[in-house]
Amino acid sequence: MPAKSRPPITPREATYPRTTESTRARGARFLLLCAQETRPAVLIIFLARFLVAGTAGLTSVTAAPSTLILGSLVWIASVAFSYLYNGVTDVREDRANGSRRPIAHGNLSVVHARRAAWALAAFALTGAATLGPVMFVVTLGMIALGYAYSSPRLSLKSRTPDTIAVVAAAGGLTYFAGWLAGAAPLTADLVVLAVAMTLWMGLVGAVAKDFSDTRGDAKHGRRNWTVLWGGRVTAFIVSVSAVAIGAALLASAVAFGLPDLLAPAGVVLAGAVALAAAALTARPGDSRSRRRLPYRIFMITQHVAHLVTLAQPAV
Q1: Which residue ranges does the record annotate as region Disordered (predicted)?
Q2: CATH class of the 35-186 domain in this structure
């Protein structure tokens, strides 16, 4: 009798290895797109704020407690939730403004992004619970701010005063959470720097971010200052605020005898002058990239200021 031939390979058997590889690739791509949507530059600056507060008063970063590591992961997850959820709720405005972020560009599903956002929130709250009740409440507050800012029912993103309040509160909570996780002594340097950079976030960044998005914001009913008052008036307000914060931080460092604040204060003041020059020379017909320049200067300034602070032996 002829030997029995092996049954033909079924399509499922033939494609199983390829399907497994494809699933992994899709999973990796999904995580990458989520990371892009949460704005890596923003996550990094929130981490820098957290670490500056968590290492305040220590002779070196290596002297920080292990809770600072878990606290950092918890905090980054809560921030990532806020920005991923914002991308979900901002999809119409982002598309009208020509955003290239994954959700607006159609590369990342709104449904999947929303699920990922809430998974991040769950992780953040679970991790925060292991760090104690105060950290849990602070993390819950951060997540609540992110939800209130973007939720269609509350939409605090639609009005500049509300946006300023949310952004400033998020900054203040970040410094407090970092100090809480680090358990370091509260120093005058940290208090002055945290107040100044929280104001920098609220009065400069929260307003400057709208310069490039006026058309889409107006189309979808937002009532921020660039829509209500126009770019020139808003640019003047942002410029005055930026220079005032930079000058006040430098003056505080000198008046209170805080030499470790001189370097970050110099960075902030220099960035404020550059930001003011960019904002006040903008024209209505400028490209979106040019209109976004003041916000980019705002971001670079706070990154450098925090890096300079972290590089010093004590804050």
Answers
A1: 1-21
A2: mainly alpha
